[in-house]
Amino acid sequence: MIIAFFLFMFAVTMPIGISLLVKQRENRLLVWGALIILTAGLSGLQVGLEKVALPYLRNLEANDAWLTALSVVTAFLNVVIHAFPYYLILAFFLHYAGYSNPMVVGLLLVPVLLSFLFSEIYPDSKVNYSYILSWGIPYMLASVTLFAKRLLQVGRGKVKKLQYFGVGAIFLIPEALLLLIQLDGIYFQSPVELLVFIPILCLLSILLGLILYVYNVFTRFQSATVLTKMQMGTSLMQHAFKNAISKNKLHALNIRRSLDAKQYENIDQHLAGLLKSNDHLMELVAKLSYLTKSKVSIDPEPTDISIVLDETVDAFRHAAVSIEKQYMSCVLNVDRALIAECCSNIIGNAIEAMDGRGRLIVQVEKINRYVKIHFTDTGKGMNKEQLSKMFEPFYSTKYKTGQNFGLGMFHVRTIMNAHRGKVKVTSQPGNGTTVTLIFT
To answer: Domain 301-439 is in which class?
Structure first.
């Protein structure tokens, strides 16, 4: 019965975890949540290999090499499912609390990896629970502390507190049971078989997580975000369109006055202004429609990216800033026109961020199968809040005008997604910004 629960958990959690990793890879918090779910699924796989597959192969007197390989995999998974949950859950709550320093997260991984060194993988499988508990308990206490601190910051609303409490319960309760299992037999003797509760609690936690994800925490957050974006976008469009419509009205009134005064020689001038303003309005509509597309179709062809960069940089040759070219010929299979739009948007943003003075370095780096284009400026930089919002539509750190809808970086990411690439931004206030386009 216990084995069936674990196998069922493996069958349920693995597709959910993989789906979240693929579809929500831009959301770091969900990525850590997905990794936790995958680890829970691996426990089902480990139990299946140890209790079903290995005994079956031994009964069949299978090849020793196969048995050895499967035993090593089983032992490796045994260490993974006993060590990694402490780390992954702490990383999740660190991100939830806003302390997502990559160096700290990387250093926290060191004791986890050492668990493989202090445990036996071959020829016998033996997990060193004492070592895992030596750092696992502090990791769990840190997770509980971060959870409690964040819970106090949520506010007085009962619904929000219950929602956040549910998020904590999803991970902390199964982790507590894992801790009890590791303590069992070392520091005390449990009167019940705790192992049976792991798959049950994990499945209940995942179910609770899906409910919160779909109906409560994340849905409400996304709805509020979408509403804010709509309000910002509507405000910008109203400003731009009101200006254009006011000009049209002014030209129409001037035409009427000219007709009333029989000054027919002025009508052509006012009519030309009316038509020009109307064309500008249509351009705004077309630009807005084009930039807000969530997907774009591409027509890739072998393209020397250095030529595209040369043409784009030369378009800004009259800018007061210094632009350094640090790249050589490199051929990529891309849509030339769309990549030129990306580069133009990024360079334009960099020049504006430097207020007419500074230096922009354009580099191309090739590492194995990856090609990276770096745009590094010496501008004023951005803080964490600005970085987190810069790919949102209608968000901009620049002055909002009828020409600037805050859609440039949103469009850049849309184009890179169409190329199965990525766009990465690093920045610090006062230390400039680096935008990197990554092609595979």
So the answer is: alpha beta
